[in-house]
Amino acid sequence: MCGAQHRKAHSPGQTCEGNCGTKLTSCSCHPTCTALKTCCADYKAYCVEISPYSGTSFGGTDFIVLDATFNISSQVVCRFNNNTDAVGYVDENSTGHCISPLLYETGWIPLHISSDNGTTFSRVGAWLSVHTGKLDSQFKAALVNSTKWQYYGTPNVGGSLEMTWNTSLVRAARVNVELWGYRETGEPYSDQWQGEWEYLYSLAKDQPNSGSFSFLPKPAEKGFSSWELGSVRVSPSAYPDGMWNVQAAWTEDHALAWHLEEKFRQNSAVWALDKCLAWDQLENQLPNFLSEIIDCPCTLAQARADTGRFHTDYGCDIEKGSVCTYHPGSVHCVRAIQASPMYAAGQQCCYDSTGAQVLTADSIGGSTPDRAHDWGSPPYKRPPRIPGQSHWVYDVLSFYYCCLWSDNCHYYFNHRPSSDCRRYQSPSSAAVFGDPHFITFDGVSYSFNGKGEYTLVTSAMKKLTIQGRTESVNGTAIKATQLSAVAMKEASSDVIEVRLGAGHDGLQVLQNQKTLSFTEQSWMDLHGVFVFAPTSANVTVMFPTGAGVEVRLIQGTMTTTVLLPEEFKDSTRGLLGKMNGDASDDLVLSNGQAVQNHSNPEELFSFGASWAVSNMSALFTYDSAYLLDTYYHAPRHDHTFIPVFSVPESPDDPLGEQASEICSGEGSQFCRFDILVGRSPRMGNATRVSFQSHISLVEDLKPVTSCGWLSPPINGKKAGTTYLQGATVRLSCDDGYTLSGSAERVCQQSGLWSGEETSCVVPSMNKL
Length: 768
What we know:
Strand content: 25-35%
Structural class: alpha+beta
Helix content: 10-25%
CATH topology of the largest domain: Protein Transport Mog1p, Chain A
Number of domains: 5
Number of helices: 14
Main location: membrane
Keywords: Disulfide bond, Membrane, Sushi, Transmembrane, Transmembrane helix
Domain VWFD: 428-619
Domain AMOP: 268-416
CATH architecture of the largest domain: 3-Layer(aba) Sandwich
Protein name: Putative sushi domain-containing protein 2 isoform 2
Number of strands: 40
Radius of gyration: 30 Å
Oligomer: single chain
């Protein structure tokens, strides 16, 4: 280590400058050092935290560097991703500020901060870039009546437009209001394919920062009306027009109907049809992505249960009142989480109030697949993987051309037909809850009260590992354990750990041993994994294979559900069994030997103990003396801890009556164990709830037979838009035609429609 670095350290010894993330000999610059109290003196000065830690990928968010002092004369430069510099500043309190830049990606972006105008970048941190659609509305400028903005110039839509923003987003007394445009150039799917944002023109300059602005739009000059997608930016008027990476409030990206050429205003339907036909021609030349996207779940219940592969579409959410602007008649839509492998395409699935799929062949509100996934996809940065904007260019503007600004939706649906669900296969689910009770993928349930760290699931084929840690229930007197943490990774992904927080009142999420805060964002794109944590009691982890892990905190105890797609069949091992539809071979020791007697608790205990993780393969974080002593410096399975194997049935047990009241029906043995051995009616109740929800989940995920869409006969019509087993579709003919074939067809268990093909024929004269 060079002398200069020694001199910069706050105290003699080692410095974190240039060493963030590593453990040094005399102190540590690793994220665990704060909890372990082993940090080098200058840890917080060089391994920095920022606030806010997240903002829109469009940039313009002003954030401060916490716990680091700057000189008033410091010239701050903030470097994002090692290639994008933004000028920062020092305020009157000697606090350093950065302005986030416009980025063509989402997720955690490496951040390096310089105090000497970019000569050296000694401070290290990370910035979370967020898809504008997933960003809370308080951080965006809002289009007042956004429909009016996006239909402006179509029949009967005119007048002035208004936008509003939170004035604290722009620290200036006076502001400029600018239009920025987005487009993609170069041949699709070639190395020349690029996305670009560009400053177009000013709508107003030197306006008071009042939090609102209205104007009467007019067709853009100088050819700017060829830009059809963009965003309005509000920024301090002290900066020159169109300056990049300054503090700003942006609107969401939207269709720029309001500045399109005069021709659009004169006859928007004709203008839009021309655009629709040009898009139709382009689509005919582009590769077909439909064959490689995942099929939709058949029912709303399946779609909401398959959390490893599908996530709520923010544009149509049953939990937020089903405001489904683009999908009339639907109550809820989901999107496939992962983009398709080759073309980075997306899938969307919408459902009506009966829980049935809504298909474009029946309704304009049907779900449509996407050439570009709305949320983008790693490695982002270039089309079609740019979050939000690539989707707009290929899938949304064309919807405006064909469906919204003109009535030619058949062109759109020809290229974006809903997928039915005939190829959809439900995932299998397994669960751990209470003082650990296990239900395997093939439905075997048992209890294992070992204390230590164990393999829940491992799949060599898919490179997935999920481990669980158990701790004693309420100290040492009670001979039972409970789940306290799960850690997981897939292939080269980040390691994600979810553990019980102090006091068991919330879940804590760690990424590569660093605690993640979900105070600002509930969704995070991490390396090789996504994490969704809408509350501190609810965390879902999603991997590229479609594996999903749900961790829930129920009345102070932790429940974990693992969902694995069909592709994992025959490849899983561990405490959650071998997923192959055969319950008889689920419980196998790590040496391959099968458990002979599933009802022998001692044999089950040996089975569980055999799955203790090795020191080398443990994925957990050890950031307290307790964790180091109990798990890290000790055998991973505590041989000295012998649990109670059977429920003591004592007539004078004061908890006996509560156990009878709380525990009933299927799974009551687990609930009774947790009350009478774990001595906790609260845990017993949580176990009952967890068991019931697992049974419901298995029910929701049951395979459903679909016979596929049935077309109405030519010159006829059909009644019925449900195509699952037992559904009936009635067919009839228009006046002047006679029905040939079946007037009623039923979807059978075989996946085939009953009856014969239906057609409508002109009755021949000689029969009259």
